[in-house]
Amino acid sequence: MEHNIILIKPDQEKHECFAESIQDDLVQNGFEIVAVASRQLSEVEFKRCFICKNSEHLEYMTSGPTTALLFKGRSAVSFGRNYKYKVRKQHSTGKLRNILHSTEPGNEFVVQFGLFFPTLNIDDHHQFADQGVVFGYLDQGLSEELSKLSNFNLIAADEEQAGLAQFRAISSLSNCRYVAVRDVLQPYAEILRFRRKNACLSENASEVKVLLLKDLSNHPTLIKSLKEKHKIQGVVCYKPSFTLLETEMLRTAIFENGLFCVGGSFGEETPGFIRASQEIAAQLDAAFDGS
Question: Nucleoside diphosphate kinase-like domain location, by residue (predicted)?
Answer without folding.
Answer: 1-124
